[in-house]
Amino acid sequence: MTDLLIIVPARGGSKRLPGKNLRRLAGRPLLDYTASAIVDAGLGSAVCLLSTDDQAIADHGKVLDWTVPWLRPANLSGDDAPTVDAVLHGLEWYRGSHGNDADPVMVLQPTSPLRGSTCLTRALALLQECEDAQAVVGMRRIESANAPISTPHRYVTNDDGFISAAPDTGALTPNGAVYAIRSAALRRHMSLYPPRTMPVVMDDIASIDIDTEQDWSRAEACVAAIGPTEQIAVARS
């Protein structure tokens, strides 16, 4: 996995939390937590591509020593633009710049500041250990398979270790913290969830995804409680 490409998608626009990617969480810009996770996972030498449409975010990405070759085009920057389209755009840039495809591609959204580094190394290890795996995706457990949840995306883990959709009974749901995917599968299926996807199950704190002020307050409370250097672990299956 010498051609690892890490893509950090960070739009400037946010209806619920304007400017959240540079907003300070416990004194640090939100982007910095993802940068720390990358370094702590030993992935600092990988190409880290910041995909953003915002100049201020781009400038901060350069401070973090990330690659920022362009501002994301308008057609990939709207509220309805799928993240996977921005990821494919970044993959195309890598091929044009390096002459070959990256493999694998890791996607880290800045809105998961408490993911820690363990989920990154575990996702890459699972992808390397299982040749049939096309992707590994961060997930959290739903407390009860029948409990109401805001997202319709529910999955179960099959006997072969891969996930399948189970809208009514699934006990796992994506947490947005980490995606590791083989570039061939990404191009073929144009999805971060190709057919042979494995889960990395993470605890509730590591799974916090900041989208609202309530999410932000919860993240602040967790950072205050665990401390900035506490390692967030992948939940045991």
Structural notes for this entry:
The chain is 29% helix and 19% strand. With 237 residues, the protein is of the alpha/beta class. It has a single domain (5-139, 174-226), classed as Spore Coat Polysaccharide Biosynthesis Protein SpsA, Chain A (Alpha-Beta Complex), CATH 3.90.550.10. The strands form 3 sheets. Strands 4-1-5-9-6-10 form a 6-stranded mixed sheet, with helices on both faces. Strands 2-3 form a two-stranded antiparallel sheet. A two-stranded antiparallel sheet has the order 7-8. The chain starts with a strand and ends in an 11-residue tail after the last helix. 40% of the residues are buried.
SSE map:
Layout: E1 5-9, E2 24-25, E3 28-29, H1 30-40, E4 47-51, H2 55-63, H3 83-98, E5 105-107, H4 118-129, E6 135-141, E7 155-157, E8 163-165, E9 172-181, H5 183-189, E10 197-202, H6 213-226
What global shape is seen? globular
Q: Given the structure, what is the number of helices?
A: 6
On the 0 to 100 scale, the average pLDDT is 91
Number of strands: 10
- Which blocks of ≥5 consecutive residues have pLDDT under 50? 231-237
User: Mind telling me the CATH superfamily name?
Assistant: Spore Coat Polysaccharide Biosynthesis Protein SpsA, Chain A
Radius of gyration: 17 Å
CATH fold-level label: Spore Coat Polysaccharide Biosynthesis Protein SpsA, Chain A
The CATH class label is Alpha Beta
Tally of individual domains = 1
Q: How much helix is in the residues? A: 25-40%
